[in-house]
């Protein structure tokens, strides 16, 4: 697994290509105030407990 920093334009490209997921690591209140459509809320505090759902994706975008 590698880590790359990408632009917001690239995020949209990955989402449109499929097999990518956007993970929002902010707390639930911040997520509820606004987030990228289709993003999954996975707060940083419990992130390690939920990583099994990410295995099906080729690209995981954290924000």
Number of helices: 2
Q: End-to-end span in angstroms?
A: 17 Å
User: What's the order of the H and E elements?
Assistant: HEHEE
Residues in helix, %: 25-40%
Structure notes:
- This protein is of the alpha/beta class and 63 residues long.
- It has one domain.
- Helix content is 25%, strand content 17%.
- It is built from two helices and three strands, in the order αβαββ.
- It has a three-stranded parallel sheet, covered by helices on one side.
- The radius of gyration is 12 Å and the shape is globular.
- The model has no long low-confidence stretch (mean pLDDT 88).
Features:
2 helices, 3 strands, globular, 3-stranded parallel beta sheet
Secondary structure layout:
Blueprint: H1 8-17, E1 20-24, H2 28-33, E2 40-41, E3 59-62
Would you kindly provide a brief summary of this structure?
The protein is α/β, with parallel strands linked by helices and 63 residues long. The chain is built from 2 helices and 3 strands.
């Amino acid at each position: 697994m590698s880590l790359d920093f990408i632009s917001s334009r690239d995020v949209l490209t990955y989402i449109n290509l499929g097999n990518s997921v956007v993970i929002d690591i902010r707390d639930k209140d911040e997520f509820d105030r606004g987030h990228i459509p289709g993003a999954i809320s996975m707060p940083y505090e419990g992130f390690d407990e939920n990583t099994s759902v990410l295995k099906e994706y080729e690209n995981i975008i954290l924000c």
